[in-house]
Amino acid sequence: MCSYPSPQSHKPEVDRPMVNFRLGIEANRFIDYSPADEMTRAYNKQQIEELKDVVGRELVAAAGKPSLQLKFIDAVQRLGVAYHFEKEIEAALRHIYDNHHHIDDKYNDLYDVSLRFRLLRQQRFNSSCDILNRVHEEDILDEALAFTTTHLKSMKDFNLLQSQYKKELSHITRWWKNLDFSSKLPFVQDRAVETYLWIIAACFEPQYSYGRRIQTKLLVLITVVDDIYDAYSTLEEPELFIEAIERWDDNGIDKLTEYMKPCYQAVLDVYEEIEERENQERSYCVHYAKEAMKSSVRAYFNEAKWLHGEYIVPTVEEYMGIALVSFDVPMFTIISFVGMGMIAPKEAFDWAVNEPKIVRACSLHNYQAHG
Fold this sequence. Notes:
Shape: globular
Structural class: mainly alpha
Helix content: 55-70%
């Protein structure tokens, strides 16, 4: 990537809305990922495969005791390792739903009834709320929970995931350091590590490594764009950035102000990474991801115009129409689907771009929490 002049050399006489952001988590401490880490990861993975067989057998063995099996499934989920046994759990709950769901005397206490209701509903089985109307004295047997907790706590799953997260975070921090925004764009926030940690909370399972990488990079970059608009740019400069994003090609970079060029190039590079992965089976998701980025950038520009006093104070309706986009919940929804692989077909993207109530509600909640 080309080296660009620092913002300090760009028209120092221009009055810019400089903002002092709080410092982020230092990224350099997470860069190293050694061969020894990879060896440890391989060893832990082998141990987990052996323990998965043990737990899987126990789950199947409990099939004749629905109450015990439900507690077993609950314990596996609470320990955060249910993704190892998705097929087994689906089959077990299907069996319970088909064979024991309507037999009242099999579930004679409140705990069993409520647990069965929650697990079946959670797995999208049509479990009626009426079963919760029957309240009995609780006599909860914890042998399944105790057995599962004792055995699964010895699993190396946490260590394996920790090793994978460390590897991913090393990749993210190297990517961020190579962008060199600390010198090219010293006014933007360094949120690479924090964003990755936030993404882990949304999708921690190992099979979503690609999704975590893409989501982190795009959310970091959209934060950079927002910082450019809020903390440094004049009113005219973001308009050039929008024009370049709308064209979405390498030629657009030539018309940008020098300090905006590295950010624009970084956006193109991440989307090229998505295209290389998705062009075979899910090329459609690239289009949706680009449109989501464009929508967020447009929303930032509208807010920048209000910030610079270019337009009169917006009405509540005008402001909320922009704010619900600029808080990036619609964009995050789309890029989450990108990272989910074939689980998210084209219909999921079509649903997301049509402003479903849940996305709008999440945007509103985000606005109320941070606005």
